[in-house]
Structure formats: structure tokens, C-alpha cells
Amino acid sequence: MNVLGFDIGGANIKVADAVGNTASLAFPMWTDSERLVPVLRQLASAEPFAPDLIAATMTAELADCFQSKVAGVEFVIGALEQAFPALPLRIWLTSGEFAEPADARELPTLVAAANWHALATWAGRAVPVGPALLIDMGSTTTDFIPLLDGQPVSYGLTDVERLLHGELVYSGASRTPICAVVVGVPFRKKLCPVAAEVFATMADALLIAGVIHEDAANVQTADGRSLTMPHSLNRMARMLCCDRSEITDEELHTIANHIVERQRKQLVEAAQQVLTQLQQIMQQERRSLATEKPAVILSGSGASVAKAVVAELGETLFAEQLFLPEMYHRPIAEAACAFAIARLAHDRCRDDLLETSTF
Question: Which of 69, 127, 140, 239 shows the greatest Cβ crowding within 10 Å of its Cβ?
């Protein structure tokens, strides 16, 4: 049985099968929602996918083209049904199980933004005993997911609950606007406010600071120009309402380093909050992080960036450091949630469907 897992986000759609073949597509749900059905079919028909079962999770329900998250969940499930009318369809819930579409519609709060839970449930297999912290850094957000004995033990299940507990931070390695990370930057011996506009994003800051490499094919930037040094420097200059003629490259590098440092400190604070909460959970079972050092698992398109967060927390804090791109023999990191969904569905849904001769 070939299982295809979809992670349908508000800005990107990612797909993977259970053996690690992956694909992704930039898809701005807020403008292109009417194209979702053909895009899903297009992704599923690509080589080497030949699905017998579709499993899905989503975060797209938060896109502002939908009047509510309930409406968003209904729309995405409906699109999946239209795209794959002849295939069994399963939706992941934050209760840790799959549901058929009719049941999923009745439980929209468990369907909404459930991709982090699927990833944690699968990645937890790497640390079946003891505590762990999963850090999944994507283009827009960073998840800090506490695990205990292989299972997610988050304080929050919904987005707002996770925001309140530091388990979800709207700061990622690419799309996050600079003005969402800092209100001012050091410039000519003063703190200069930055423009409250999406002139540049964290991808520009990370590139200028030397954390990531140029990617001429990447035009998912603030101005639609490529992620290359000249364009990133131009975009960063605009954050101070400057042209390149008004600011030096050295000054722009100093500004980028400051922004990267501020984001890292923001993420470190969230990680510390979640580790404190994990300690509280363990105390209920008369266990302690002092005697059971946690492992840390790094995942997502920003996994290499998240390594700096672990370094600042102190690598000796952790019993071991696992890097998801190295945990599987195929490159699944950038579609990790889709892969997790495919693996979980392959393991959990396969026997039931075969028994009922669904296909």
C-alpha cells in the first residue's frame, strides 16, 4: 500500500510518501484557495507517487481567506475529497489518531494546526524512553515540543494555547518580517527604528549574517527578487528607509547580525519556558531533568539555524542531539510533517483498510 501524506499550510503545501520521497510547492492560500484541488492532484500525480491512501494534516485553516478556522478545516477537507474521490482519506487529530473525513469535520479544533503533533508523535520514536525537546523551525514558525517517553506532552493543543506556553513562536527562518523581530537596530551609534513594512525578512538577515547560503532560485522574498546577497542587502537597507548609496555594506552586516541575535534570544527564551514546563510534568511522576537529561531533536527547513539556539542553551544541557536530516536515509527535513503523516498512516491505517477491502 502506497501512502501519501499532505501537510497543507497557508503558504506552502508539502507532500511525502512513507519511504521518503518528498515534494513541496509554494502556495499562498489567502489568494489561491480556488486552485487547491488541481494543485493537490498535480502534486499526487508526480513521479514516483502512486497513492492508495491519502493522509493529511493542515495549518491552512488560519488563512484569512476563510471566515473562521472551522470554515478553513471544512474547505481543506472538501478539497481533498474532490481531489481524490476514489481514495481512502484520513485526517490527523491532536488527540493522536486519524479520523475519516466525516468525523474530522465534527472535530475541527482537533484538526486545525495538527501538523506539529504528527511530527512529534513520529519523531518521538527516536527517544522512546526519557524526556526530549523537539525543535522544529520552519519558514514562518518555530515549534518547541516537549516529549516524554516518546510521546508529546505539550501544555497546549490549539495555536493560542501553544503561543501562551512558548510552544509555538511565530518566528521562522525565512518568511518572518524583520519588523516582527526587532523594533530598532544599532546604526551610527544610535538605535534606529525599523520600518513597519515587509521590506525584508529573516532569510535576508540570515544570508547577510552568513548563516545560510545564497539561493538564486528562491524568489519567495519580500520583493520577489532572488535570495542573493545584492538583493538581500538592498532589502535590508529599505528597513531603514535607505538606498544602498546611504548605508555601507559593513553597517548592513552589523544590522543583520543584531537581528539574528535578537531572534535567537527570543527562541532561547521560549525553549527555556518549555523545558521548565517539561520539568513540572516530570515532577508529577517523581522524575527530574536533573537526573534524566533530555535529548534534543532538530527538524525543519531551519534546523541548521536552530542549532545556534541549542548552542546558546548549552549543549551540555542535553544528553544527545539528534538532527532529523540525518535520522532518515532520504532528505525529508523540509517536508518532515508530511513524511510523519505518511509513516503514521502507513503503520496505523494499513491493516484496517486491508481488512475491509477498501482497495
Answer: 239
